Amino acid sequence: MAETDEYLRMLLNQAAAEEALLGRVSRTEDVEQSGTASGPATSPTVSLMITSRQRAELRELGFSDESIRRMTPAEAHEKLGLSSPSETQLGSGSR
Question: Model-level pTM greater than 0.70?
Fold first, then answer.
């Protein structure tokens, strides 16, 4: 019986943690949709990845799968109009 109680307690804790996570995700999506952010308007952004949706948009713009594969996330975001000028300058620095 004690093992069953412990298992149920673990499941309830996991469900509570997942509910909390979903609540945070929901609030983040609400902020993104409303266009208001709690951080400063000039906070720096860095392009880390190209999402599947962004790949589809690039294909619609006429880019081939091969050219999309070779793009850096910053390049892809620039072509989609998602990057800020400062981000483009950061990505084009000397190596």
Answer: no
